[in-house]
Amino acid sequence: MSKENESFLSSIESNKGIIYKVANSYCKDADDRADLVQEIILQLWKAFPSFQPDYKLSTWMYRIALNVAISAYRKASNRCQIYQPLSETAIYLAEDKSLANDNRDLLQSLIRELKEVDKALILLYLDGYLYSEIGEILGISESNVATKLSRIKQQLKQKITSY
Amino acid sequence: MQDIQLQEIWKSYDRKLEEQLVFNRKNASDITKMKVKSELTSMRPIKIFTVLLGILWIIFLDVLVINLLPIGNLFFLISAGFISLVNKIAVGIYLYQLILIYVVNINRPVMSTQKKIAGLTTSTLWVTRILMLQLPFWTTFFLNSSWIGSANPFFWGIQALITLAFAAVSIWLFINIRYENRDKPWFKFLFGSYEWTPIMKAQEMLVQIKDYEKLEPIITN
């Protein structure tokens, strides 16, 4: 295995949560999710040589993962025809059971209901990114992030409270 | 509910993922050996094939028009010329799409990248609209100017009706094949098939991006 390959796999391992969270937010179906994880890793690998070390790895990963997830959702139902399916996925939950918790499940399902760009915005916010970092990943201004985020949070909070 | 509570729920999800998420190094390594076949690259072969087919068709029409220019009748020259022009525009748009496929970079910010990809997908709708404009000329290319004085007026009446009907339908389709009409029964009948779904979804994405652009322009770098 080449040094570049080793370095890439280590980067993926240390940021596997990002890939899983993005895939899980954009795909409810387990098979679609596995395909999306595969496509994200593939595109990250393809883009890896152009990664600038002075750039934050997680930010770079989020940018690519979101771009892949948002582009892929348009083809959701025939995704398997595009990719060469592997027998098992690279990132998965150890126990094949949901992370059962009412609030967590509810938040997950509410996030899945959001529009694609709004979903990206709230994912980044919940993952603790600063407005400036969210703006950098999405390509919008900080004030745009703040305005939109405030509306999305309001929307989520109202729905959670009403349940 | 406070923001902090929202973040707390997310943090608990994070903690659970931390405990249960598994990384299969071998599978990930296998993925890096796969041939890259993304949504964009999968669009490439069909577009190249369409462009090549379009170019051959245009060459055929143009050769026909040029060679028949001295002897051909006016109806044929105008009809074939217009059909060729419409197809040239369509091929031009397809070529533009192909160029875009090569320049789209998923390393770039999400909004600008998605705007490019969605624009690329929805331009297919434009090609369809433009191609509709050639419809009436398919009803006139075989006519002969020498028939004007000699043919039965009934024939000309029927011919005029057919051509006008095709012209009306083509103009109507050119104007109405738009995302805004996606829920109309005729639109669903014509474009309800599986192949059109990504185009409609791409248009939805452009609407979402426009919603963000209302506040401030998106950043491309």
From TrEMBL, chain A:
The RNA polymerase sigma-70 region domain, residue ranges: 12-77
Keywords annotated in UniProt: Sigma factor, Transcription, Transcription regulation
A single GO molecular function term of this UniProt record: sigma factor activity
Record protein name field: RNA polymerase sigma-70 factor (ECF subfamily)
A family per Pfam: Sigma70_r4_2
UniProt key word Transcription: yes
Family, as annotated: Belongs to the sigma-70 factor family. ECF subfamily.
Stored InterPro entries: RNA_pol_sigma-70-like, RNA_pol_sigma-70_dom, RNA_pol_sigma70_r2, RNA_pol_sigma70_r4_t2, RNA_pol_sigma_r2, RNA_pol_sigma_r3/r4-like, WH-like_DNA-bd_sf
Alphabetical GO biological process terms: DNA-templated transcription initiation
Domain RNA polymerase sigma factor 70 region 4 type: 105-156
Automatic annotation (TrEMBL), chain B:
Swiss-Prot/TrEMBL keywords: Membrane, Transmembrane, Transmembrane helix
Segments traversing the membrane: 48-69, 75-104, 125-148, 154-175
Top-level taxon in the UniProt lineage: Bacteria
Full protein name: Uncharacterized protein
Organism field: Algoriphagus ratkowskyi
